[in-house]
Amino acid sequence: MRTNQMNKLSTWTRLTQSKYFVYVLISPLFLILLAYVIYPLYKTFMQSVVGENGFTMENYARFFNPESDANMEALFNSVYISIISVITCAVVGVTMAFLLERYDFPGRKILSILVLVPMALPPLIGSLSFTFLYGESGIFPRAFQALFKLDEVPFALSGIPGVIIVHTFTMYTYFYLTASAAIKDLDPSLEEAATSLGASRFRIWLKIILPMLTPAMVASSLLVFMISMASYTAPLMFGVERTMTMQIYLSRTNGNLDMAATQSTILSVVSILFLIIMRWYQNRRNYQNQSKGIGVHRTEVRSAFMKYFSMFLSMIGVIILMLPILVIALISFSVDGEWTVQIIPTTYTLQHYIDLFTDSETWRPIWNSIKMSTVAVIGNIIFGVAAAYAMVRLNFKGKTLMDILIMVPWALPGTVVAVNLIAAFSEPTAFSFNQVLIGTFWILPLAYFVRQLPLVFRSTSASLVQMDKSIEEAARSLGANWWYSFRKIILPITMSGILAGTLLAFVQGLGEFVASILIYSVSTMPMSVAIFQKMYAFQFGTACAYGVLQIVLIIIVLAVSRKLEGKLVNSPV
Amino acid sequence: MTLVHPVLHYCEVLFLKSVSLENVSKIFGNAVGVDGINIDIQSGEFFTFLGPSGCGKTTTLRMIAGFYYPTNGKIYFDHQDVTFLQPNKRNIGMVFQNYALFPHMTVFENIAFGLEVRKLSKSVIKEKVEKVQKLVHLDGYGSRKITELSGGQQQRVALARAIVIEPDILLLDEPLSNLDAKLREETRVEIKRLQVELGITTIYVTHDQHEAMAMSDRIMVMNKGKIQQIGTPQEIYNKPANPFVASFIGESNILEGKVKAVNGNDVEVELSDGILLHGNKMNAAPNTNFTLGKIIKLSIRPEIILEGDGPNKMTGEIQLVEFSGVSINYIVKVGPNEISLMIINKGSNILQRGENLTFHIPENGIYFLGEEW
Hints:
The structure holds two protein chains of two kinds.
Chain A: H1 11-17, H2 21-49, E1 50-51, E2 54-55, H3 58-63, H4 70-102, E3 103-104, H5 108-114, H6 123-134, H7 139-147, H8 159-185, H9 188-196, H10 201-230, H11 233-237, H12 244-253, H13 257-284, E4 299-300, H14 304-332, H15 351-358, H16 360-393, H17 399-411, H18 414-425, H19 443-451, H20 453-466, H21 469-477, H22 482-511, H23 516-519, H24 527-536, H25 540-570
Parallel strand pairs in A: 3-4
Antiparallel strand pairs in A: 1-2
Chain B: H1 6-13, E1 19-28, E2 31-41, E3 46-50, H2 57-65, E4 72-77, E5 80-81, E6 92-95, H3 107-117, H4 122-135, H5 151-163, E7 169-173, H6 181-198, E8 201-206, H7 209-215, E9 218-223, E10 226-231, H8 233-238, H9 243-248, E11 253-263, E12 266-271, E13 276-280, E14 295-300, E15 306-307, E16 314-323, E17 327-334, E18 337-344, E19 356-360, E20 367-369
Parallel strand pairs in B: 3-8, 3-9, 6-7, 7-8
Antiparallel strand pairs in B: 1-2, 1-4, 4-5, 9-10, 11-12, 11-14, 12-13, 14-20, 15-19, 16-17, 16-19, 17-18
């Protein structure tokens, strides 16, 4: 006799076996995305189209009005800066990648490590160091002035060229990383095969190497374009007011909220459009190298002259790469207010570093940033791990939508994120538990949470994808329920991925400036805003001491996450 | 030193279960993965699902494990309906194709996992793990990391982890496919030895017919989600139920002819080029239709064909000669058919391509196939 157990199954069991149950599981994730991504975007959009007398396109008409050309000029400048940045970053990044991956020359080793230094610079510190080095009262222009006894500084970085140079320095790494990965993946046997078929060196470049690199180049171009469009600190430091981000900031500080909303909406549309193009392109074209175990072969530089020449060039490269950090470190020891017309500061002190941790006034922004970043990161971990698990392991409709919604806040300029949050949470809403968040402690962690939404998600899903599905099934077959196998198997195995994303999110929170500047209040002032204010109060030393602290933290995090990623790669299966 | 054979300890505590599938189907979207299959697996049996990739064998195994729920039908362990029971409540041991060892745990921790889930005391766990380690020849490897093991050792950890929980049923999903040829042979013998000694109900999935033949009590041959035949290795080989089984298991010449005459058990079949063959009516798949004039399929194993004159004699030109050491394989063109035959190497001369070869087929070497279904 066979007993029919189906009738004995509890309601709960039957409920969880329904194919719609998965939507119950993922609904909290969509709710969070709705509350903190879609709703703020929607509120900003509504603010831009709803005037005193209901719906109006007046703001957009004003934006595109050819007579008051500030907005159009800003849009043009932003696009112009972005395009030039893409070109300069591509040239520098790809050249570096080819030199370092394909040639062996004296100084290659050190250069290949230092080439990533710009990644350790938070945007604000990067811009700051360039004004210290090459700005109107910067070290180099003054040194040349003194050297050649000129009346005025011979050159100075300012305006749009200044912005572009800072962009190039801070963003070429995106090209460098993708290009060198692509070059590493290029199987030498492909070139050998082409040679054996009679192709010339030039033809191989044209027909094999370049097409193989194209996907990486296009992806990096889109990325650099997006980041340049969102750039705020460089225009701020070099006084370029006519860019989209600066216009938004100015409209807000001038109290023209509707216009700020309009500008934000337009910039959002551009950013999201680029995000979608990027996704589409990456899905469409993906050259996968079939071969495994590729041997690197580098061409050795042989002639004596070329050896010395390349050594000389490497040294210049090392100096250029290190100078921004060195100058920040140097100035962090200078006495505040003493550095005026000299080439470099004349008096030095350790006081700023002592103050960082002992003076309550100086310590408070650090502590604020640590607190707010921690709160944001806890949110990022919970959301990121849950979303990664859902995306990788569950089957549901709307995966693409979820993926895009998670990426949107990353594509949006920080300025826009801030404007959106202000629009959404300057009044009580259900999503903020009927509280006004603007002006409170909570708005900043929320902004950090939103801006870092993809970080933990990405790193966790990367390690989840690597983990074989049958490992979880093995645990289940051995009698572990879902929660037990999640705790004992999935979490430990993906821990390095989770940790890498968490650390990155944490330091980004510590260095966040662009959104903070719009929404901080005096009692919640974060570190970056403090740096900015000290700068304007001529307290360069204190500002740079904060900067060094940020750089050190970032370098630690980068080193640790490298280790973690290494562990990830070495794990079996 | 203990004198008690570790295996005997297991036999005392194992509860063997039978497995039955009743009309089980699995549909993925629009694709039918498994199409209405019925199986009864006896307790203690070594039962193999054999078929080409995509035939539904792994899907069937995963439904038994509980990783998929059937679209239709029922699954029973003994008489208990487990169709929708969660995998962790089935008390099964499963060995995965890629072993699915927990990379962050040692050998000991891997094997102990299932026992810890069952909340056994530390000392009991230690005792059981050490016993099973001995059983799979991994004593002393407890503190090793998984990455420090060879493929064969990893495979044995996976096996140990599956049997240490004293499962009612052992499921093996192509466990040898990631091993090299020599290790595969060794491990195959080892798995069979364990299964015989433990007497555990075992379901084994493979696409390798040699593995299936060597290990199984019974084999289920699957194709396109359907059962082609269930039987002992001898039955499957000697009496294939249809052309698919005949050609999938071993090598076979499949010929087509018309039923010319039936006298008692003797069946006369005319091939398309007029050659007459005589076979035994009893040597046929169950549903074979011997109506006069009907087109019928015959299966002739290459090794059954003999050189020289005899019943069912044929002559043809040699198209291809292959010397394998043990045997000489010829492909001979006889009329429109190319017939492959295998002559055991006894040191005699090897004929060359283009020469004529005369051979004959003993009457019981012709097997009449039913229709493919």
